[in-house]
Each structure stands twice: as C-alpha cells, then as structure tokens.
Amino acid sequence: MKKIGIIVGSLREQSFNRIVAEAIPELAPGAEYAFISIAELPLYNGDLDKGPGPEPVRQFREAIAQADGIVIVSPEYNSGIPGVLKNALDWASTPTKTAALLRKPACVIGATPGAKGTMMAQQQIRQTLEAVQVFVLPFQKMYISQVTDKVDADRRLLTDETTRSYLQRYAEAFIRWIDQASTLN
Questions:
Q1: Which entry of 94, 98, 112, 128 is 20 to 30 Å from 164 by CA?
Q2: What is the C-alpha radius of gyration for the chain, rounded to an integer number of angstroms?
Q3: What is the pLDDT of residues 33-86, one digit of tens each?
Q4: What is the pLDDT of residue 96?
Q5: How confident is the model at residue 52, as a pLDDT?
Q6: At 169, phi and psi to the nearest 5?
Q7: What pLDDT does residue 39 have?
C-alpha cells in the first residue's frame, strides 16, 4: 500500500484547505496517509542547514522521505504561495543531491473563498517543485473556488458532492501517478 504524505500550506487549525485535506483519506482509501506538519519549521537559513538541520527540519525531511508521494493542499495569499509553504519547500529541497523532495511524486490542490481557485499559488508551487526535480502530477489540476459554499466549517467536512467526486478522482489519479513517476528516474 502506498504511503502518502499530506502537507497543508496553512497554519490555521480551521483552515478550509485542512478540511479539504482531511477528506482525502476517506475519498481515496487505497493508500496510507500521514499529515506532515510545517508549523514548527524555522525560517530557512543556510547557516542552520548543516547535517540533518534543526530537529523540526530533520523530522520534516524524514516524514517526506518515508512517503511514496506528497499531496500539497494550499491556500493562495496575495495571489501567491503562502510564505510558510515556500519555507517548508525550501527546507525539503536541500541538500541538493539528497533532498527529501528530489524525484518524489507530488500533486497540488488548493481551495479559496474566491473565484479563481488558487491558480496563481499553484502555478508558483509547481514552479518551485519542478525546480527541485519533483515529479508533479501532469495535465490535471485541482482548483476549489468558493470553498465556503462547499464545506461545513463547524463539522470540518467537505460537503459539496461535485467537489468530493472530483477530489476522489484526482487523489486516485495521483496514487496511480506514483507508479508511473517511478519509471522516470
């Protein structure tokens, strides 16, 4: 069974993106899932990036290394990637030749109350991932717009059936992509 790491690009406990991420294991039960926290990572500093790095960084990199694939579920802040997520990706991309993310299959999902569904943030996340040689799920994108109409924030549930169906298909496609991506090495 595939091991999938899920990184949420928001630190808010009641994040809409966290609610979407929490729906994935239920919708695509054909894998084992582990949430990988970015909350304790220090700001990236090359002076600290020696050996395994600070303990939160070591744990973060190890969690990524143990996963067969990574799902990133992220909001969009000011038409771009959240700073905490960019910081996490920077830590996961070093050291260059042995980075935890190097040649790792990944996919990107994003939800926003707005109308554009995190298109700009996902473009920047994909650009960063491709720069560090991550195998990003090609040709498919998962943008969730007007997320406030698609979740029950009090019960922490993704309730919109159309979105649930699309998320299920996307997650299942990603699980299949993990096997395909391994042939690219």
A1: 128
A2: 16
A3: 999 999 999 999 999 999 888 999 999 999 999 999 999 999 999 999 999 999
A4: 84
A5: 85
A6: -60, -40
A7: 98
Which two structure tokens, joined as six digits, stand for 76?
A: 């969009």
By CB atoms closer than 10 A (0-12, 13-18, 19+), residue 97 is exposed
Which CATH number goes with the domain that contains 147? 3.40.50.360
CA quadruple 129, 135, 137, 142: dihedral, nearest 10: -20
CB 9 within 8 A of CB 81: yes
pLDDT of residue 13: 87
For residue 29, give its domain range. 2-182
Which residue in this structure is represented by tokens 């040649």?
A: 103
Q: Are 136 and 106 in contact (CB under 8 A)?
A: yes
Summarised one tens digit per residue, pLDDT across range 89-109 is 999 999 888 899 999 999 999
For 100, the token pair is 């935890």
Angle at 132 between CA 127 and CA 133, to 5 degrees: 95
User: Residue 9 is encoded by which pair of tokens?
Assistant: 């690009």
- Indicate yes or no: pTM above 0.90: yes
Per-residue b or e along 139-174, where b marks 16 or more CB atoms closer than 10 Å to that residue's CB: eebbbbbebeebbeeeeeebebeebbeebbebbeeb
